[in-house]
Amino acid sequence: MIPVVILKALRGEAIPVYGKGENIRDWLYVGDHADALFTVLSKGSIGETYNIGGYNERTNLDLVKLLCGLLDEFQPRADGQPYAEQITFVTDRPGHDLRYAIDASKIKSELGWTPKQDHSSGFRKTVEWYLNNTDWTENILSGDYQLERLGA
């Protein structure tokens, strides 16, 4: 969802939001997710299961508005209008879960892991990453990317 919102906003396209945007998700910054996986590999017990969560539940509409606000701050539209004007509500898909939730208490209590990013810093870093890596995203969106390995 996050890449779709950012990239469609920057291209001046409609930003699709399912239903009324009331679906709730728990969001986790990618760096925190990688850190949690490393923690499980290095400290976890073989055969145990550890749920990784962000303690960051938001409705889809709240998240889209937050991302639009960050884009307004970092790279305002040329016409001066807010990116949120591009939000378009679309028909939700049948059977779409209203809420995805994770109980991450075990990884916290047994392994001492919690996310380092708070409820907004991870989103800020993500938007900044997309704005600083437009060559990467354009390569994928143009169809030039042919599944070759990218990066180091």
Could you explain the architecture of this structure?
The model has no long low-confidence stretch (mean pLDDT 94). This protein has helices at residues 2-10, 30-43, 60-74, 105-111, 121-132, 134-141, and strands at residues 15-18, 24-26, 57-59, 87-90. The protein is globular and about 55 Å long. The chain has a two-stranded parallel ribbon with strand order 1-4. Helix content is 43%, strand content 9%. It has one domain: NAD(P)-binding Rossmann-like Domain (Rossmann fold). The protein contains 6 helices and 4 strands, in the order H-E-E-H-E-H-E-H-H-H.
Low-pLDDT residue intervals, each spanning 5 or more residues: none
- The quaternary structure here is single chain
CATH evolutionary superfamily: NAD(P)-binding Rossmann-like Domain
Radius of gyration over C-alpha positions, nearest whole angstrom = 18 Å
Q: What's the helix count? A: 6
> How much is the average pLDDT?
94
CATH class: Alpha Beta
Assign a percent range to the helix content. 40-55%
Keywords:
152 residues; mainly alpha; Rossmann fold; two-stranded parallel sheet; two-stranded antiparallel sheet
How are the SSEs placed, and which strands pair?
Elements: H1 2-10, E1 15-18, E2 24-26, H2 30-43, E3 57-59, H3 60-74, E4 87-90, H4 105-111, H5 121-132, H6 134-141
Parallel strand pairs: 1-4
Antiparallel strand pairs: 2-3
Helix pairs in contact: 1-3, 3-5
